[in-house]
Design goal:
alpha+beta; 3 domains; 3-stranded antiparallel β-sheet; two-stranded antiparallel ribbon; THAP9-like helix-turn-helix domain-containing protein; THAP9-like_HTH
């Protein structure tokens, strides 16, 4: 048999596949495969029991003709496949196993993975299903492939990291973005539950914290992010928006923000209604003690939101944008709010 044809045997489909089968085991096997719409080598590998169909009750003339040529009928009505066809099928499957092993050895250059074989893949349903899924994705059109892009990245990341030690795990940008979204929407407990039960699939929280710290999305208490808002408007190509302000009750707690070297959780000091950013900065323990003893913790979180208004030729509705957030108490007056606006 042509060596080139043998090397490309797993890429054969339709007429090329049937010509290969005819050259190897004869026309009768081709008719059996055609009747079952087995049109490729991969399809045959997934369904090697092609003779099971002869035990079915079917009155279609083409089926009866194929069964008559391929089987003996016993006195009890059962059908036995002729030994020659059985040997031909075994010969065909054995040839495919040999070619698969050759390709694996060739691609692995004789390394430790050269023992991966046809029988080994069939032994583990997960490997077999993954191969079938990847083959189906490769055969899909471009739009369908794009729909499966993230899932492919997720599976590739998970399987690649499983072969490494935990300190060598690597993650693509799409996985990092997904991890950030999951952490924000699901919270820390949900994120850690998924990460610990799927080792190697999601980055550690320390990496997420560094990503958040280095991004423009980080918010400092009392900061109005007008520059980032303008960039957000430019990316959406919008010029108008609604602004709103509201507050909600929070758990009273003081925290130290290392990026601004300031303490958060105290009520923000207002200058003409506008909060003074990073007001509670000190290197003195006595000053910090004085604040704790004389100032009540903020009981409310004041939030400014901006809702972009899309143009008439853009039907999509953008998500609201967080402009600023800061802690307050109930001592602010109506004059403070009017001056702020």
């Amino acid at each position: 048999m042509d060596d080139i044809l043998a090397e490309n045997v797993f890429a054969l489909k339709n007429n090329e596949f049937y010509e290969f089968i005819q050259a190897l085991v004869g026309q009768q096997m081709v008719e059996i495969l055609k009747f079952q719409s087995i049109t490729s080598t991969q399809s045959l590998i997934r369904n090697p029991n092609i003779f099971e169909i002869f035990n079915m009750n079917c009155s279609e003339p083409s089926f009866l003709m194929i069964r008559e040529r391929s089987c003996f009928q016993l006195d009890n009505g059962a059908f036995i496949v002729k030994i020659g066809l059985i040997n031909n099928l075994n010969c065909l499957l054995e040839f495919l196993k040999q070619q698969q092993q050759k390709q694996i050895k060739k691609s692995s250059n004789g390394d430790s993975y050269s023992s991966l074989s046809f029988d080994f893949i069939n032994k583990y349903p997960l490997l077999k299903k993954l191969i079938i899924w990847y083959q189906r994705v490769d055969n899909e059109n471009v739009d369908d492939q794009n729909n499966n892009t993230f899932l492919k990245h997720f599976i590739d990341t998970l399987t690649d990291n499983l072969a490494k030690s935990s300190n060598n795990f690597r993650y693509s940008n799409s996985i990092k973005n997904f991890a950030l979204a999951l952490y924000i929407l699901g919270g820390k407990l949900t994120y850690e539950f998924i990460r610990l039960n799927l080792p190697g699939s999601l980055p550690h929280l320390s990496l997420l914290n560094s990503l958040i710290s280095s991004s423009d999305s980080r918010i400092s208490e009392g900061e109005f992010r007008f520059d980032q808002l303008q960039k957000h408007f430019d990316s959406l190509n919008v010029h108008y928006a609604f602004g709103s302000e509201d507050c909600t009750g929070i758990v009273k707690r003081i925290k130290y923000d290392s990026t601004t070297n300031a303490f958060t959780g105290f009520p923000s000091l207002l200058d003409r209604g506008v909060p003074i950013k990073s007001y509670y900065q000190t290197d003195s323990f006595d000053t910090l003690k004085l604040w704790f003893n004389s100032i009540d913790n903020a009981s409310l979180l004041n939030v400014h939101m901006i809702q972009p208004v899309p143009s008439t030729d853009n039907s999509s509705i953008s998500s609201p944008y967080l402009l600023s957030a800061y802690g307050i108490d109930n001592t602010a007056t109506a004059d403070d709010i009017l001056q702020r606006w």
